[in-house]
Amino acid sequence: MSDLVLRDVRKTYRTKGRPEVEAVRGFDLEVNSGELVGLLGPSGCGKSTTLRMIAGLEDVTGGDIAVGGRSMVGLPPQKRSIGVAFENYALYPPLTVAENIAFGMRARGHRKAERAARVADVAGRIGLSDILDAHPAGLSSGQKQRVALARAVAREPEVLLLDEPLSHLDAAQRDVTRRELRHLQQELGYTTILVTHDQEEALSLADRVVVMNDGVVQQVGTPDVIYDD
Ligand code: ADP
Ligand code: ADP
Fold first, then answer.
1. Residue 49 CA: which ligand 2 atom is closest?
2. CB neighbour burial string for 49-62, b if at least 16 within 10 angstroms, e if fewer
3. What pLDDT digit, counting tens, does each position of 48-96 carry?
4. In sequence order, what are the beta bridge partners of 27?
5. Which residue's CA lies nearest to atom 3 of ligand 2?
6. Is the CB of 43 under 6 A from ligand 2?
7. What is the reported pTM?
């Protein structure tokens, strides 16, 4: 696994006829190999923009993003070894769960037999083995969220990005999914950033918590340190 380093990352949105928005204003962070960092902050502080820049879905205005010492800046999403499970990252309705999980692996050069084995393995780990032939429309939100997670890890990314992974779940589902997520991340050793606006979620899951405010890092610490403040 690899570390993830963000150095002075900036994003200014410029839309014609509207004032500029400095969404991210010099973001510095080192996520160690295998570490789960919780990125916490109020709505509009720049969390999603930061994730999208790491994933390559948004260009950086300045700064550098490197995975395992290699700069990702300028590379398209499919050339980055990054798995994303975003809150609004829709599953493809016509595809089965298995096909959704396998989606994206082809581009990375996996062969058919390899893809099938990988889908079965990931589905087993995330508790989706019984619903591989189902379509997204018939699934609960908890199941959909797990399929999105399975799709992200099926690519065997070096870095995993999770945007509000528990947000649409009820309290009971949230507890189960939180435990599964933690287990999966530890077992597979992914370098992970988990975005949330929920302090409890960040503190319960993360090795370290980064508090973001108005486009910058306001505080970084282990959950106990952040909790005491
Ligand atoms: P968060 O994920 O913390 O809610 P965002 O990264 O979505 O924050 O947004 C940070 C700021 O950038 C907000 O002021 C938001 O309105 C603005 N913003 C986000 N995306 C765009 C965009 N595509 N164009 C213009 N402004 C944007
Ligand atoms: P989040 O808080 O999860 O980032 P938002 O509802 O803020 O979600 O943003 C949803 C989408 O709208 C994103 O793709 C973002 O780029 C876009 N967006 C957010 N704020 C603005 C804005 N001020 N102008 C244009 N697009 C925006």
1. 4
2. bbbbbbbbbbebbe
3. 999 999 999 999 999 999 999 999 999 999 889 999 988 665 789 999 9
4. 9
5. 48
6. yes
7. 0.86
